[in-house]
Design brief:
The chain is mainly α. About 85% of the residues lie in helices and about 0% in strands. The chain has one domain. The chain contains 2 helices and no strands. α1 runs antiparallel to α2.
Length: about 140
């Protein structure tokens, strides 16, 4: 009778470990989705700013072209300022994309570590044999 109870408890512990593992993975997945959505909004805002920055840079260069000041565009302070703003806007877009990739990689690592941890716990249940179970 004790052996049967021990087997039932062992099976219940295994089920509990499965529930804990998949609950944790689901929790991490939910956080990943929310973080990626936030980064997508950041990327969208950055792309919108980049588009405005490109427009302002193009307008500045065109106005300088109309004034016949095309010799050294990079030495003109207003054009140089617009170019720096455009570069910063591009960096914000790339940062958002890099952050999304980092979030995906972090989720994969968390999922693998949780799977390994709970796999080891379930395996330890198979190894342990109580003394009264041998009777």
């Amino acid at each position: 009778m004790k052996n049967v109870l021990f087997q039932i408890l062992r099976i219940l512990k295994k089920i509990a470990y499965y529930v804990l593992e998949y609950g944790y993975v689901f929790f991490c997945w939910t956080l990943k989705v929310l973080k990626i959505q936030y980064q997508r909004v950041r990327r969208w805002v950055a792309r919108r700013g980049l588009k405005k920055s490109y427009t302002a840079l193009g307008n500045e260069i065109y106005s300088l072209y109309k004034q016949d000041q095309t010799d050294d565009l990079l030495e003109i302070p207003s054009a140089e300022q617009r170019l720096r703003k455009t570069e910063r806007a591009e960096e914000r877009v790339f940062d958002a994309e890099d952050n999304m990739e980092d979030i995906r990689n972090a989720f994969k690592e968390k999922k693998e570590s949780a799977s390994g941890k709970y796999r080891a716990l379930r395996a330890s249940l198979d190894v342990i044999v109580p003394e009264h179970a041998e009777q």
